[in-house]
Predict the structure.
Amino acid sequence: MAQVSSIPEEQASLPLSASKSILLRISKFNPEYDKSSKFMEFTITYKKWTTVLEAILDVKKHFDHSVAVRYSCRQASCGSCGMLINGKPRLACFTKISELDSDVVTVEPMNNFPIIRDLTVRFEKLFESHQKIKPYLIRNDTELESDEREFLQSPKELEQYIQFANCIKCGLCNSACPTMATDSSFVGPQALAQAYRYVADSRDKGKDTRLNIVDDSHGIWRCHFAGSCSQVCPKGVDPAMGIQFLRGYLLGFRS
Amino acid sequence: MTKDENRGGIKGMVNPRRYGIERIAYLLMRFSGLGLLGYFIAHVYETSNILRGRMGWDEFLALTQTTEGHIFLALVIGMCVFHTGNGIRIMLGHGGVGVGKPARPDYPYDPASQNYRHKIGIYSSILLAAVAMMYGLAVMFGE
Amino acid sequence: MKESTIMKIHYGTALASVGLVAVHILMRLTTGFADSLEYENVIANYRSVPYVIMLELILILLSVHGFNGLRVIMLELKQGRVYEKAVSYGCVVAMIGLIGYGSRTIIITNMGMV
């Protein structure tokens, strides 16, 4: 059952004179008690720069403090506030209501992740897959053994992977991926892109180890280059590009 | 698939909205592949009618020489051409060809892998499939 | 077999079958679509050894490619050790079955037993 509420002008955090209003639909679901999710509806005023996260926090402040949402930095750096906004995975703090170009904004938890409550999802599987590809430099020597100099790297070598090092592990790519929608064993675009990030790092010597890990029946070959992961990435990581380059090693196109 | 996992499921996989032409191509590739496999199995069975001699062959051939049969075959031609064209595009992409070069990302972060080369590849495959279907229909209905 | 080896076979069979299927279709068009399907012409095709070799190759290549594609789709739809083994072996059996059935037609017709 939907609940319709609106913020009285005097209570609104944004003055109505300079603002428009939207209908914010928030998915409510507690797996401990509920059999299915339901939507709560709130009329929210917004300005040109109001983000979806700010609108949700307005709801928490004025109408329903029980809405569960995870957030921290509010500047697309921590990767906490990923959710489906009008059906597409986005960061709530990075999505302005005005750019959605809709009078109704529907927010739901990201799919392909188990729901903790309302808009908050579990990241254990994401982090497990991330750890599986060994997200650290693998070398035969160590800094302790050769302490006379750091691992040198040219700007050109840095460019090979720096884009992929921007990943904030927000999980939007895994939520958008069509394979992740049905394949619970798939390692996912986030981990695959990170595998490439380390394989492409000139300081790393763990290429064969990582390629062996991703060369699995639920590994890199389950990516079909639909590119949805890259389209939703809020940091320009372009996981699809990394995955294809990584696959290039396995196909013998790269060495 | 349990509710606990909150997976999009088949509905999430086949949803072609919001992700552009690349996602539609993914879907068409999958459907055309399944369609072609179905046709291939049927074709192997169909041609085995030659073992029944002239009568068996002509009987079965008559079933396919209908308007519905021609339209079905035109669809198969379309699926075959799209699957081939898009398949070559995907194979090149899988090898890292035409997916752009890694670089420091700049806002608004347009993904380099989703570039015009691949979009042209997809649209060309669709166009070629349409042309091949029309040619096929012209040949089949023209005779 | 490693997944990368399977997928290399998948790509290889795709590329090889594109060329051969193109020849197979062109054979229908060069003699006229309806004429090429006449019983005598089809029998003549089956009696030609190079053409029969090509048909057999198409049969093998497309069976391998098609059933591996089906295996990939099915593995992505549902997971589980037993299910995955059943899908993989099921696809191999279906592939061998189809190749066997198609080869039977090709061999019997080629040997003039029709």
Notes: The mean pLDDT of chain B is 92. Chain B has one domain: 10-99+111-142.
